[in-house]
Amino acid sequence: MMTVETAKTIVAESGLKLLESKLVARTWGNVSCRTGDKTFVITPSGLSYEQMTAADIVVYDAESGNWEGSRKPSSEKGVHAAAYAQFPDAGFVIHTHQMYASAIGLAGFDRLKLTDEEEAALGGIALSKYGLPGSKKLMKNVKASLATGAHAILMAQHGALIVGKDEKEAFERAMKLEEVCKAACHGQPSTSGQPTQVSEGSALKAIVDSLAPSFQYLAYTSHPATIRTSQASAVIEAQLDDMAQMIGPKLYAVPASAEAVGKALETQDAVLVKNLGAVCKAVDKADGDALTLLTEKACVAYLHTHALGDFVNLSWLDANLMRFVYLKKYSKKSGG
Ligand SMILES: O=C(CO)[C@@H](O)[C@@H](O)COP(=O)(O)O
């Protein structure tokens, strides 16, 4: 078993790897490494990965529920503990909000056709029922899925939990999971059977440039899924936790004019711009990058569930509760 200090260093570095590989946005997701039969080290709750160091990593005792560290442990420590309890040989656990696994976690899981090699590489795959992030209900549902023997869990309407014997295996499984889910995802506009008008990036940029003086920071994206969704619907509802939290219960599409986009951004943090993509109102580049990634993911998820005719919107209460908690609490944590 590696030393606690070594484990803390690996976990801090893995958090940044999670962000850089776009398996998460902002401070979502979490990483842990086993240090004993009932103990592991885990990332703190709500801290940005760019500034995270080994000193921020928390030592958690799953038996007593006690923890040591200068920061509170991840709110998802329960699902990590469940993974280590289920698999004695588990050495590393990551929770992601990865795009395509999140889409398949919404719909189409029963249509996944994995080869024997893919199934073996993942260590088995299962879909767990929904529970609010950090809740006992979520932990119970993930625990039930882990009990099937699967090491890759799609957490419905949330993300994924991946278990490995070490960091290398856990990350390889996360990337393999994204690969097989992307292949099965209908959120790629080209598979939606309709032509996608590739945006005139300059038209979107012209709108952003004209609005820039009125906002602290504007980010934008012309990801094909945002264009396709802007053409398909005037509003989409949150199907995934992190959209509800960082964008809100609804994402609206408005006409491609500076006036319409500017007006929408007075009350919304992200807006789809018809035929062009999406614009996000942020405090800085990191915030803007997170918002554009979540907007792209929400659109991929919408196109996927729309193609399968299987919408799974979050309940009004859950979506608004997560938005409230995010604005009042979680969004304030990033800097520690
Ligand atoms: O979605 C959430 C938090 O809202 C969690 O599942 C996770 O992604 C991030 O939680 P922590 O920052 O680790 O407490």
From TrEMBL:
Its EC number is 5.1.3.4. This is L-ribulose-5-phosphate 4-epimerase. SMART domains: Aldolase_II. Belongs to the aldolase class II family. AraD/FucA subfamily. The keyword Electron transport does not apply. It catalyses: L-ribulose 5-phosphate = D-xylulose 5-phosphate. It comes from Fusibacter paucivorans. Keywords: Metal-binding, Zinc.
